[in-house]
Design goal:
This protein is an alpha+beta fold and about 120 residues long. The protein has helices spanning about 1-15, 30-35, and strands spanning about 35-40, 50-60, 65-75, 80-90, 100-105, 105-110. Strand 5 and strand 6 form a beta hairpin.
Length: about 120
């Protein structure tokens, strides 16, 4: 769980360090985006250190927000399962490509879809 709590800090620091905003995709169909996504590559980051078999599952909620479940196994495929739960909300209704993800109140981090 600690790994995913560090996500918020990492996202915040990255946002502060960015010189120019990233371009997002022109539109995200949230119905098609829902489901489980598997990590195939990543830049090194503290909150996923030692993780293998990383996935994120996005589930639409009746209130328009999105449930987020991040999972990984520690060190090996039969290692301890580590999970973090969050709720995301769309912050750019025109594209659905910019979301705010909240792992714990009152803090949230930016989640931008930059490629599909």
């Amino acid at each position: 769980m600690r790994r995913y709590l560090a996500v918020l800090l990492a996202l915040s620091l990255a946002a502060c360090a960015a010189h120019a905003p990233l371009a997002t995709v022109s539109h995200v169909d949230l119905t098609r985006y829902a489901g489980t996504w598997y990590e195939i590559a990543r830049l090194p980051n503290r909150f996923e250190r030692g993780c293998v078999a990383v996935s994120a599952t996005y589930t639409a909620r009746p209130d328009g927000r999105i449930d987020v479940l991040n999972q990984c196994r520690e060190e090996r495929l039969d290692g301890t399962l580590d999970e973090a739960h969050a709720v995301a909300r769309v912050v750019d209704d025109a594209t659905n490509a910019k979301l705010a993800v909240q792992f714990f109140w009152p803090f949230s981090g930016d989640y931008w879809v930059i490629a599909l």
